UniProtKB/TrEMBL annotation:
It comes from Erwinia tasmaniensis (strain DSM 17950 / CFBP 7177 / CIP 109463 / NCPPB 4357 / Et1/99). The lineage of its organism: Bacteria, Pseudomonadati, Pseudomonadota, Gammaproteobacteria, Enterobacterales. Gene3D superfamilies: Spore Coat Polysaccharide Biosynthesis Protein SpsA, Chain A. InterPro entries: Nucleotide-diphossugar_trans (IPR029044). This is Glycosyl transferase.
Length: 406
């Protein structure tokens, strides 16, 4: 049983009654006559070889209200793309795969790159960006959801609840974010959200003063969730980061372009589990270390655009403030775990806090040393001003890849 409080600046939708997925889908089928719905799935080819994505596809095959599914496929050669076409062919809905490493999309990407309009680095942000471009070009949906392809606890009710606030013609929300608990293997997960983002948002308010933007971010139960949905026209005007700051970057763009009354969040699952990242890879980079660095820089860039003076001195204060807040929060989660009979490893939790503290220092240094860095991928409205036919060309390239020889 969920709580029912509305104690932030955005609307919360709770799972108060455990309403069946069949009842939700019946409403959504009716809503789809007025508001068509789509889904974006950013995927690595390696995820086709794991158990999570195959189960996700089986669940999506039962969804009766989707007008289109757009799949972004990264790190795939020709034979792997052909395998992907077969893999996803069991979806009864209209679906298209963006072969991001294929010659057609790479040629378009090279044209964009000459004008400085291409994503600077490979990754989820670039994948999502091209998928949103195709979604705009296809024009098959008026609201579109996005979720990851590594959710091992997936069931189609997650998608139904995520889309419901946008699809209901009686509601006027532009953006919806999913939230859930992160518990698996008898322990708390979600370290970046629990031990970095939450304490950091509080610390930023303490060091730099009250901010409506930080209050907005703090209203989200799980700001790092990869499950969100928006009205399709929103895709045209937002700039997203190409790195691990994607989720925070999307929230920041929604804040910039829309009022808080147009945003909501919905409880989409009692529990949720997906592929876990290590603290860092063997070479000392990547993993949660890279993720946390990108997230912190995304927050700093947004605050700087709002006139906040971020200096080396203030960063030393921020680091100390964060560390104390994070340790206090860790103690609260220790009590939470104890009361719920969960395991809690204080050593690994505190090691994560220490790593996040270093990531904050590293991110601050990078931000100060490279103030002119352009981490955001251009909006599609800007790209279309330089290449008026770009969406039509992306659409045709994807159609050719999916229906013809490659």
């Amino acid at each position: 049983m969920s709580d029912f409080y509305q104690n932030g600046v955005i609307t919360n939708f709770h799972n108060l009654t455990g309403r069946s997925v069949e009842a939700l889908e019946k409403d959504l089928v009716r809503f789809s006559r007025k508001r068509k719905m789509g889904l974006i799935l950013p995927s690595l080819f390696s995820e086709l070889e794991g158990p999570a994505l195959s189960h996700i596809v089986d669940e999506l095959a039962k969804v009766p209200y989707l007008a289109e599914i757009v799949i972004g496929l990264d790190r795939a050669d020709r034979s792997q793309f052909l395998h992907a076409r077969e893999f996803f062919s069991r979806l009864p809905q209209r679906h298209r795969i963006l072969w991001n490493d294929g010659p057609r999309l790479k040629a378009l990407d090279a044209e964009l790159d000459k004008e400085g309009l291409s994503p600077a680095q490979p990754g989820k942000g670039r994948n999502v960006w091209f998928c949103t471009g195709y979604t705009l070009a296809s024009d098959k949906s008026s609201c579109v959801a996005l979720h990851d392809c590594d959710i091992v606890t997936y069931e189609r009710g997650m998608l139904a609840r995520l889309l419901y606030p946008l699809a209901n013609p009686g509601f006027q929300y532009e953006f919806c974010k999913g939230f859930y608990a992160r518990v698996a293997d008898n322990k708390l997960n979600g370290r970046v959200g629990r031990l970095l983002v939450g304490p950091l948002l509080r610390s930023l308010q303490q060091v730099y003063g009250h901010s409506d933007y930080l209050e907005y971010l703090s209203s989200f139960r799980y700001p790092l969730s990869g499950e969100f949905a928006m009205r399709t026209h929103v895709l045209n005007g937002i700039k997203i980061p190409g790195d691990w700051g994607l989720e925070i970057g999307v929230l920041s763009e929604i804040y910039r372009n829309y009022t808080t009354r147009q945003s909501c969040q919905v409880e989409i699952a009692d529990n949720y589990d997906h592929k876990h990242q290590p603290l860092a890879e063997e070479d000392g980079t990547g993993g949660l270390l890279r993720m946390s660095n990108d997230i912190v820089q995304s927050l700093l860039r947004k605050m700087a655009t709002m006139g906040v003076n971020i200096t080396s001195d203030s960063f030393r204060v921020l680091k100390a403030t964060y560390y104390r807040n994070a340790l206090d929060m860790m103690e609260i989660y220790n009590h939470e775990a104890t009361m719920n009979g969960l395991k809690f490893d204080q050593h690994t939790e505190e090691a994560a806090v220490e790593m996040f503290t270093q990531a904050i220092l590293d991110a601050g240094q990078s931000f100060i040393e490279r103030p002119n860095e352009k981490p955001f991928i251009p909006s599609w409205s800007r790209v279309q001003s330089a290449f008026p036919d770009i969406l039509q060309r992306i659409y045709q390239a994807v159609e050719d890849d999916n229906s013809g020889d490659v």
